[in-house]
Amino acid sequence: MTLKSVILLTVGVILVGSLLVPFCFPQEDDNTLDVIVIDGQSNAQYWGWTANNICDPSAVNASGLGAPSHDLYYYGDATPTYYGPVYTQPTYDTTLASYDLHKMYDGDWKIGSYGPTLAKMISERSGHDVLVIDVGVGAAPIQWLTSTGPGGIWAEKIISDALSKVPSKYHVDMLGMVWAQGESDASTAVATYVERFNTLYNSLNDKFGLEKVYIIKTRDAYGGNAILAQEQLAADNENISIATDITDTFTTENGLLNTDNLHYTQKGRTAIAEILGETIAYNEHPANESLELLKVVPVIIIAALVLAAAGIVMVRKSD
């Protein structure tokens, strides 16, 4: 083989390696965003405007949760006057102009509640970035939260705006809704609660694809008929489940229940989020088979170059 042939073969291999290989072996950059909605009343809502041990980012940081390996977002504010999800703040921006997607972690955890633990655990299982949208409203009966009630209308407006602000690089997977409600409906008839919840569920599922519901069981001391209704909902619909009943173990003595004997502390919310983080299902996105086939192309071309070179050598020898 002449020096010229060697140089041409070398250049050909280099071109295949530098131009074709990157195309046939695209960098794996998962662009899926897993989205979870939290809905319900005060044990769902974000408490961030008063000094308390509910929704406390300092407690999250002290718990040793550690830095996430993926981007984890919440929808709301990130200003000096208010840092956290929407609604439960001194002044609610009805225009939604001040709200956006913000990272939960920036050297330390910026928000508390369920979000940090829940999002981090799901991201570690799925390998995806995660967005948590909290639309919980304190003291809200289920009638108020349905799609025709003011809380439900507001929630759908928030979810829609949050999704509209998701960067275009993402493919969105709606993982479902976490439901923490029942204290305001302890005496509501079971059939009435079931009907109202189904109204809410059908609307959110139709509009946003929130097919899965993960219920945080209301404590026996406050749940009453709402617990019975939620059990019926789970029995009637395979997409609805009682995700955890750990709240019945909450006490002020073990630090999981606030001194008001009603609201879960940050420690309690973290305990719930750990269970949800292991329970909530996510979607796997296997590699595209057509892209897998492309991976053999550089091998074939390099083999062809080598065979061509061998052929040239054989011809020259025969001459």
Shape by Cα distribution: globular
β-strand percent reads 15-25%
Mind telling me the CATH superfamily name? SGNH hydrolase
Mean pLDDT: 86
Q: Biggest β-sheet: count, sense, barrel?
A: 8 strands, mixed
**Ends apart, CA distance between termini:** 12 Å
DSSP summary, beta strand count: 8
Helical stretch tally? 11
Multimer state: single chain
CATH class: Alpha Beta
- Written as H for each helix and E for each strand, in order along the chain, the element string is HEHEEEHEHHEHEHHEHHH
Question: What is the number of domains?
Answer: 1
Range of helix content = 40-55%
Radius of gyration: 27 Å
Question: Mind sketching the topology for me?
Answer:
Layout (H helix, E strand, L loop, with lengths): L2 H22 L7 E9 L16 H6 L9 E7 L4 E3 L14 E4 L11 H12 L2 E6 L7 H4 L4 H15 L6 E10 L9 H19 L4 E4 L3 H4 L1 H12 L3 E5 L21 H14 L9 H6 L2 H22 L1
Parallel strand pairs: 1-5, 1-6, 2-5, 6-7, 7-8
Antiparallel strand pairs: 2-3, 2-4
Helix pairs in contact: 1-11, 3-9, 6-8
